[in-house]
Structures are given as C-alpha cells and as structure tokens.
Specification:
Blueprint (H helix, E strand, L loop, with lengths): L1 E5 L9 H20 L2 E5 L15 E3 L6 H10 L6 H4 L4 E4 L11 E5 L4 H4 L6 H4 L1 H10 L3 E4 L2 H11 L6 E3 L16 H6 L6 E5 L8 H14 L5 E5 L14 E3 L5 H9 L3 E4 L8 H8 L4 E4 L2 H6 L5 E3 L4 H13 L4 H11 L4 H13 L4
Parallel strand pairs: 1-2, 1-4, 2-3, 4-5, 5-6, 6-7, 8-9, 8-11, 9-10, 11-12, 12-13
Helix pairs in contact: 1-15, 9-13, 11-14
C-alpha cells in the first residue's frame, strides 16, 4: 500500500501537530516491513527547506508548491488533484486539517479540534479557512481522523457524518517522558529558575488562555503565598506575554531533554486552554508523575489522569482556586506511579495501528 502523508508540520520548530506527525510517521515506519507499507512524505512549501531526518523507509516526494496558493485553490474547487503533485498513491493523509482532492487515492484528513468554528475569535485567517477546507473534504467522502473521542463526536455532529466517517486515533506519549530525570537545583539555578514552580507548556495562541492564567496565578499567590512561582515553557517561553510579573519565569526555547527535566521537576503542570483537541502536555506530565490542573473540558476529562484538578477556563477565581489545590496535592510514590500508569495507556504504536486501520477500512 502506497501511503503519502502531509509532513509540512515537520518543517521548522515542532510544536503539537509537528510532534504528532513526527511520532505517527515513526510508528508507521516501524510497521512498514511486516504490513507491506510504502511510506512517503510530502510538504506544501515553495521557499522552505526540504524534509530531513525522516524515519528509515520513509521517502520524500512531491513538487515544491506555494502552500497559500494550493490551499486557496482547494477552497474553491477540486484542482489540482494530489496525484499531480506527489505522484501515484493509494492513500493521501492530510495531517493538519488540509486534505487535497484526489483522482483515485483514498482521502484521509486529521481534524485536531474545532477551534476554527467554536472559538473563531482566537484564530487567524488561515485557520478560519479550515471551515471550508474540511467541509469540502468531507463532502468528497474523506475519512476524518481525530485525536480524541470528544473531538470525533463533535466533528460528526458539526458535519452530520455517520459514525464510520470519523475515527478517533488517540495520541501517544514518547517513552522518554517516563524516564525523565527531574531538574536538579544546579540546572534550575543556571537558568535563573526557582526551586519550586508550576509549569505551563504551550504557545501564545489566544486559546491557550494565558491572560487568565497569569491573573489567576497572581490571585492565588495573594490568597496563599505557598503557591509556587509559574514557569512558561515552549513557544510561550520565548516572548513575554502581557501580565507577566516577578513570580513568572520564561525559559526560552528548550530541547526535548530539557523540557522533560523542567516538567519532571515541577510541583504541577497547568493547562488552562479554552479548547483542546487532546491536551498532550497533561498526559506527558502524568508520564513523569506530575499532577495537573486542566480546564474543565470534556476532552481533558477524557485524557487527564483521574486525580487531576479541573477548573472553568473562563473563570479567573476558579483557576486561582485550582492553582491552590494543585499546589497542595501530595506527591506520594503511589500517586506518582498511578499517574504514570494512566499515561502508559496512550502510545504512538496504538495511534499508528488505529490510523492504519482507517487507511484500510472501506466505509459502508
């Protein structure tokens, strides 16, 4: 079976969707020999660099094309078909909302969330275009993959799709998280970070709700000075968001190994998002044994460890109270082990198996 995936999210620094594509490709590549897969990776870019460090057995294919141009064409019609850009393929998997029309290939598209329709005020024009692109894809009969059961149900309802048209393929946790060594005092001191801290990992995307988190953290510290300082990591650690005070620290960009250390050494991880498709940081934190404060969203109840603290993301008072509760959670050996066991339910091999089954299954 010839399978081509859109690997554009692998270009540049890899955030959530880039990690998804990276790990899915690697897990599919591990199955390529036994399952007879011919794996290819394409990108939509005109000036960008080509793909590098692809897994063994995955080869880059396709022409250089301007992403904005082809996406605009696909919002209006069904040309160009993907085979003219990447060559013959049995399946084309649009990994990031964008699914090109095909001549004969099975069309598969991952819809990570419905932020573009549920919180349009938080996204840019390119993301708003997903509404038309996804609608056109499902009208052509594309199979939709989602990172969670919650998003699968929402997509079925939004586009009035039958059950077999939408397949949840829950994300996994890289095994390195389970072996993460917590940050040492010397490591923290070198980076001017406090010995005790809560951590947020994510972007400055408005849906991540950093403004309310920062207000809630100030309020929680006033109510209970034992609430630790807050560390912002990932893209959010590169630029100073509005509202940062003396008890908030930015890390700059971190390597994977350093991010594992930072999260593994935290008193707790906070994910106050207005919307999520999966919420990978809460599962990664659980893999290190770290407790979590998460938004009171169905998808985070689906994936967060059972002892997680939840708070309404649009309520600063609720978030502040959640931070106080998170800081007060006992870090026992048994509790940490239970979180790791929970996180172990989510694997990239399982994600790849569910994805491959969707590639192969004929819809009724």
């Amino acid at each position: 079976m010839r399978i081509t995936l859109d690997a554009t999210p692998l270009l540049g620094r890899r955030t959530g969707i880039g990690r998804y594509v990276e790990q899915l490709l690697a897990a599919l590549a591990r199955r390529s020999g036994p399952d007879g897969l011919d794996l290819r990776a394409s990108t939509w870019t005109w000036r960008g660099a080509g793909l590098s460090d692809l897994p063994a057995g995955v080869r880059p294919v396709g022409r250089r094309v301007p992403a904005r141009l082809v996406r605009e064409l696909w919002t209006r019609g069904d040309l160009p078909v993907v085979e003219t850009l990447v060559g013959p393929t049995d399946v084309f998997h649009g990994t990031n909302f964008v699914s090109p029309p095909t001549r004969r290939a099975r069309e598969v598209v991952t819809v990570h969330d419905l932020t573009y329709v549920e919180h349009p005020e938080t996204v840019d024009a390119a993301t708003l275009a997903y509404e038309r692109l996804v609608a056109r894809a499902v009208a052509r009969g594309a199979t939709v993959l989602t990172p969670s059961q919650t998003v699968a149900e929402a997509v079925r309802a939004r586009y009035d799709l039958p059950a077999d048209a939408v397949v949840p393929t829950p994300l996994g946790v890289d095994a390195a998280w389970f072996d993460a060594s917590p940050a040492t005092p010397a490591w923290l001191q070198e980076r001017d970070l406090p010995a005790e801290y809560l951590v947020f990992v994510g972007s400055l995307d408005p849906r991540k709700n950093l403004g309310r988190l920062l207000a809630a953290h100030r309020q929680a510290r006033l109510a209970d000075p034992s609430v630790p300082a807050l560390v912002l990591a990932g893209p959010a650690g590169r630029a100073t968001p509005e509202g940062v005070g003396p008890d908030v620290h930015l890390t700059g960009w971190l390597t994977d190994e350093d991010l594992h250390r930072l999260v593994g050494g935290a008193r707790g991880l906070v994910l106050p998002s207005l919307d999520e498709g999966f919420g990978l940081p809460v599962v990664e934190a659980a893999a290190t044994g770290v407790p979590v404060l998460a938004s009171d969203l169905p998808v985070l109840h689906e994936v967060a460890a059972p002892d997680s603290v939840f708070a309404a993301p649009d309520d600063v008072d609720a978030l502040a109270g959640g931070l106080v509760r998170l800081a007060g959670l006992d870090r026992t050996t048994a509790a940490d082990a239970a979180r790791r066991t929970w996180a172990g339910r989510f694997t990239w091999d399982a994600c790849a198996a569910a994805t491959l089954a969707a590639y192969r299954t004929e819809r009724s």
